[in-house]
Amino acid sequence: MASRGSILSSLNLNNDHNVSDIFNKNNQYIKIFWVGLMDGDGSIQVNHWRKQSLQYRLIIKLSNIKSNYNMLIKVAKVVGGTVRITGKGADVIWVVNKKQEIEEILKIYDTYPPLTSRKICQLAFLKTCLVDTSVETYLLHRKLKYDKQLTIINSNFYLKKNLPSYFKEWLSGFIEAEGCFSIRKSNNPSFSIGQKDDFYLIDAIKQYFEVTNKLRNTYGKFYSIEIYKKEVLLKIITHCTNYPLLGEKLESLNKFNQKLL
Ligand SMILES: [Ca+2]
Fold first, then answer.
1. Can you give the pLDDT at residue 104?
2. Spans of the chain below 70 pLDDT
3. How much distance in Å is there from the Cα of 122 to the middle of ligand 1?
4. Do the Cβ atoms of 258 and 233 come closer than 8 Å?
5. What would the pLDDT profile of 161-216 be if each residue is shown by its tens digit?
6. Separation of CA 178 and ligand 1 centre (Å)
């Protein structure tokens, strides 16, 4: 058995390296998680001020509960931006208004692009307006903001066959935004997730968790899956343990987990 002293010295030897390693890994995780969270609950906005100048904004608005607040603080520490309580205390928002800070944050998207067609369009529009800051260009392109959405959807049809390398981390951010762990008393526990327009994303998630039920197209162009099978639910829980949820959904996952076991 190793003596106490040798264990301590070997720990010390690796300590600095490990701490910075874990720190970097964690930061990387938060960045990709943020991309997924933005895809579900965020908004990339450009507005004009009295037709004189352009204003840029990244924003995530959530219900103001402690877990969401803490999550957005974590995001702000790694990604940037600030966290504020609004809506007479009902909402917590993460927001960035400064052009320079936005440009810095957009570098994350260079490595980890958004995956929803809507966010891809919003990002392209923002980039156009950051380069050409005239209100005329803004007004012209605003009308065309979502023109390429259908093309994007079609070109991603087989996303499931070629998942991006950051899909797992992204998915946890997206589940935090759009997933639903249902533990209604009358029903069996279920997990559901859906998205408007983006068939390819729900299809990719379906494949990733090896879900066998059919993808639902309940109303209009909203695509979703609802899972009751315990085997698959356990797979989802395992995923969300390895790639942790960070806000309100972490709480509902914990309750869900207790119900399921
Ligand atoms: Ca949501």
1. 98
2. 1-17, 187
3. 18
4. no
5. 999 999 999 999 999 999 999 987 776 899 999 999 999 999 999 999 999 888 88
6. 4
Handedness of CA 57, 60, 61, 67 (dihedral sign): negative
Residue 14 is predicted with a pLDDT of 55
- The letter for the amino acid at 66 is K
Q: How far apart are CA 163 and CA 19, in angstroms?
A: 30
pLDDT of residue 2: 42
Q: Domains in the chain, start-ordered, CATH in brackets?
A: 1-40+108-261 (3.10.28.10)
Please give the distance, rounded to the nearest whole angstrom, from the Cα atom of residue 194 to the centre of ligand 1: 10
pLDDT at 15: 61
The whole-model pTM stands at: 0.91
Distance between Cα 177 and ligand 1 center (Å): 4
